[in-house]
């Protein structure tokens, strides 16, 4: 185990770690590494920095890997983590399920993305209280592990809505540490945040305010957080011009920051030109086919987790509307929708996944012909195929109800071959940076979304290419490694 006298100078804490494990019937463990901003950020500071990443074991394979690590120095085998020091917490499965499925994904995620059907939900009852106790225990387990692994004065970067209580709990244990929290989600406006029971709402805010800094993907979410602190806690909010917001509560000040994570241009450009992506591209082109004049059909591409907030079903309705109102597009366009499995432990996600398939099927039944499939829906995760779709997209549809950032909106223009028109929800964080060159829509307005799809499809090629170049520039302004280093620097300032 890493002791606090030596300990790590930089620590990251997140629910999902950089690696996951599958347990074979014969007891063998197979590891699989993920990507994302934190992985790039930590590799930017190099393995010499001795940074430690603390994450939760999510499934049986992870648990087994965590147990094997605990028998040694507490860290996962570095061969599995690309040299990264990772401590995976084996939190009891019932506690983890209540914290992750019960609170994080069914309550806090719903609050920040405005997902409740409020006539019937939420209803905070005894079950909720039991789950909330689990969320507290799960946050405490992270705080304990971080407190144990951190060197004196170390910097700790705590991630997301799963771990809102960690900054406060960690400060109690280790007042010497510099603690930052980063929200990858939107933040709810005060009236909606106050759906939470009063004590819980206050505990979440106080937890984050336990840190020296609280950071967000856009100014809009930082402002919403500050307003919640003012309304719920009566905290004092100070604005230093454009530079920053500060929240003072019970004599302590927490600085708020904004770091708009960008796409990783170098990685994407290189990865999207690999042979496996070329193969997927050829397959997709064949599936899309040509119109009656022999011209390749146009494409509207979307790539998402099958996530309630991504608004996939309304996107399909908008596409149906386009085919209904503008028959000239029949046989000339294909909607490529990749909707990858996510959070399938939750019934509402399983039902939503079924609804996506059902509506796509309806559109294909209504409009499809022998040679034309209007919607090509894939529900199995395939990164190479996603990149292939990015390369050929004429139009990208990114229409979330609400989204912290949405990296797909930033990735497609970077990877696109001939330039792509972006139809973008005004409720995506990315809209703050991409609005000038996107076609911006209200995600609830199906007619307006259909109109924007038509406008995108008819945009002159030159304009599409020019806009796409500017979108790619804006999208890559803050690459993941710098996004991470900026936060680290700001925490020391
Ligand atoms: C969002 C959250 C992340 C989360 C990801 C995937 O982007 O901000 O914290 O990891 O969704 O969700 P999952 O529940 O599969 O980790």
TrEMBL record:
| Alphabetical list of CDD domains matching this protein | GT20_TPS (cd03788)
Q: Give the family per the record.
A: Belongs to the glycosyltransferase 20 family.
By its UniProt entry, which InterPro entries does this protein fall under? Glyco_trans_20
Q: Which organism is it from?
A: Streptomyces olivaceiscleroticus
SUPFAM superfamilies referenced in this protein's UniProt entry, alphabetically = UDP-Glycosyltransferase/glycogen phosphorylase
Query: What is the protein named?
Result: Trehalose-6-phosphate synthase
Q: Which Gene3D superfamilies does this entry report, sorted A to Z?
A: Glycogen Phosphorylase B
Domain of life, source organism: Bacteria
């Amino acid at each position: 185990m890493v002791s606090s006298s030596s300990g790590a100078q930089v620590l990251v804490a997140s629910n999902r770690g950089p690696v996951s494990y599958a347990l074979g019937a014969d007891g063998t463990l197979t590891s699989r590494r993920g990507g994302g901003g934190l992985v790039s950020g930590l590799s930017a500071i190099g393995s010499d920095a001795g940074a430690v990443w603390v994450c939760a074991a999510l499934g049986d394979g992870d648990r087994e890997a965590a147990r094997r690590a605990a028998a040694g120095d507490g860290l996962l085998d570095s061969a599995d983590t690309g040299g990264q020091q990772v401590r995976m917490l084996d939190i009891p499965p019932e506690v983890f399920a209540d914290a992750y499925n019960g609170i994080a994904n069914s309550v806090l995620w719903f609050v920040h993305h405005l997902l409740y059907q409020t006539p019937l939900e939420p209803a905070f009852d005894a079950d909720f209280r039991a789950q909330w106790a689990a969320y507290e225990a799960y946050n405490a387990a992270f705080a304990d592990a971080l407190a144990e692994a951190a060197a004196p004065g170390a910097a700790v970067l705590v991630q997301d809505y799963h771990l809102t209580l960690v900054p406060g709990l960690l400060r109690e244990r280790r007042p010497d540490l510099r603690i930052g929290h980063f929200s990858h989600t939107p933040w709810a406006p005060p009236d909606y945040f106050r759906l939470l029971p009063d004590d819980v709402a206050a505990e979440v805010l106080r937890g984050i305010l336990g840190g020296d800094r609280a950071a967000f993907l856009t100014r809009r979410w930082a402002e919403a957080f500050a307003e919640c602190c003012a309304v719920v806690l009566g905290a004092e909010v100070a604005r230093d011009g454009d530079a920053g917001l500060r929240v003072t509560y019970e004599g302590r000040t927490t600085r708020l920051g904004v770091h708009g994570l960008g796409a990783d241009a170098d990685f994407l450009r290189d990865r999207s030109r690999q042979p496996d992506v070329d193969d997927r591209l050829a397959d997709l082109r064949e599936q899309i086919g040509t119109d009656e004049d022999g011209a390749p059909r146009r494409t509207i591409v979307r790539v998402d987790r099958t996530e309630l907030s991504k608004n996939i079903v309304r996107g399909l309705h908008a596409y149906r509307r386009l085919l209904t109102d503008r028959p000239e597009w029949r046989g000339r366009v294909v909607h490529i929708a990749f909707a990858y499995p996510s959070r399938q432990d939750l019934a509402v996600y399983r039902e939503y996944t079924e609804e996506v398939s059902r509506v796509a099927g309806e559109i294909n039944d209504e409009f499809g012909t022998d040679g034309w499939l209007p919607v090509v829906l894939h529900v199995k995760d395939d990164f190479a195929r996603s990149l292939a779709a990015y390369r050929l997209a004429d139009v990208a549809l990114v229409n979330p109800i609400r989204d912290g950032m949405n990296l797909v909106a930033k990735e497609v223009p970077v990877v696109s071959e001939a330039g792509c028109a972006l139809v973008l929800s005004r409720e995506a964080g990315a809209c703050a940076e991409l609005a000038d060159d996107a076609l911006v829509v209200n995600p609830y307005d199906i007619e307006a979304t259909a109109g924007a799809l038509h406008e995108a499809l008819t945009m002159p090629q030159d304009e599409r290419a020019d806009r796409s170049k500017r979108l790619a520039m804006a999208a890559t302004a803050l690459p993941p490694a710098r996004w991470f280093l900026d936060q680290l620097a700001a925490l020391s300032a």
